[in-house]
Amino acid sequence: MADLKSILVNDIERTIDGVIKADDRAHIRQEIEEYVITQEVAKHLDKLIEGYRESIEGVRRGENYPYNGVWISGYFGSGKSHLLKMLAYILENSSVGGEPLAELFVPKISDQIQQANMRKVLEVPARSILFNIDQEADARTGSDDNALIYIFEKVFNRFLGYFPYDRNVAQFERHLDDEAIYEKFKKEYEEINGSSWEESRKTAFSIGQKKLVRVLEKSLDISENDARSMIEQYRKGSSISVESLAGRIREWLDKQDISS
Fold it and tell me: What SS3 class is residue 86?
């Protein structure tokens, strides 16, 4: 007599995490393979895909975005995070082992028109920044009225390769990038100090300031006093608002190629 293990397609001893983690990429293929599009999900997915498609076509016509966000609502444990994670990986056309994850998800859509619209959406390059807010919060953002903005900025800085744990250092890096000298700066930092900028930047404005000064003198062709004055200005920091962060993100988006 056949036992349960022998008649099931999937290994019953495989790892199944009861809680979907946004930053867990190790199990993303399994999560998408085993995802079930219920009738309720299919109904709202159709609305999302249609809105996404309208936005793309509107931008191509030079129009403003008709939509600027999507709210996923549901009871605790209803699968909100699961669906969001699936969409984040699929819409940016992520692959695992050379296999596009979209090819595991799209065939699950039973409606052929909806499936065709999904494939049309996937033709447009997209980037996803997936994170859990509670994991990103720290003592510096916990009680501030702008706590959420600081978290969004932190995650965006990390996405761009800037230092996420000190917004003043990240701003310094961003300004170097804006001047198209960031890569040159990092190379010269390692040549002069024998360690990479990424390894040293957490202390660059404090005990590592002397190392940074030497590099700035060479990279920007400025005096030691000017270099120290520059660092001091960055250490003072600057304020942040929804408008300033949104403007920064918009500037980055405007630099992206969406022609394909």
Answer: helix
Q: What is the DSSP letter of 62?
A: T
pLDDT tens track for 200-209: 999 999 999 9
Residue 95, beta-bridge partner list: 100
Q: pTM score, two decimals?
A: 0.81
Tokens linked to 59: 């931008």
Sign, CA dihedral 77-78-84-86, equals: positive
Q: Helix/strand/coil (H, E, C) string of 155-220? A: HHHHHHCCCCCCHHHHHHHHHHHHCCCHHHHHHHHHHHHCCCHHHHHHHCCCCCHHHHHHHHHHHC
pLDDT in tens, 51-72: 888 888 887 888 877 677 888 8
Dmax (CA) for the chain in angstroms is: 84
Determine the 3-state secondary structure of 248 from DSSP.
helix
Residue 231 one-letter amino acid: I
Residue type, 124: V
Distance of alpha carbon 82 from alpha carbon 87, whole angstroms:
9
Following CA atoms 165, 166, 170, 172 in sequence, which dihedral angle do they give, to the nearest 10 degrees?
Answer: -160
CA geometry: angle 100, 105, 108, nearest 5 deg? 145
Tracing tokens 């001091």 back to the chain, one arrives at 232
What is the full DSSP assignment across 104-150? HHGGG---HHHHHHHHHHTTS--------HHHH--TTTSS-TTHHHH
What are the Cα distances from residue 61, in Å, to 56, 58, 232, 233?
Answer: 9, 5, 46, 43
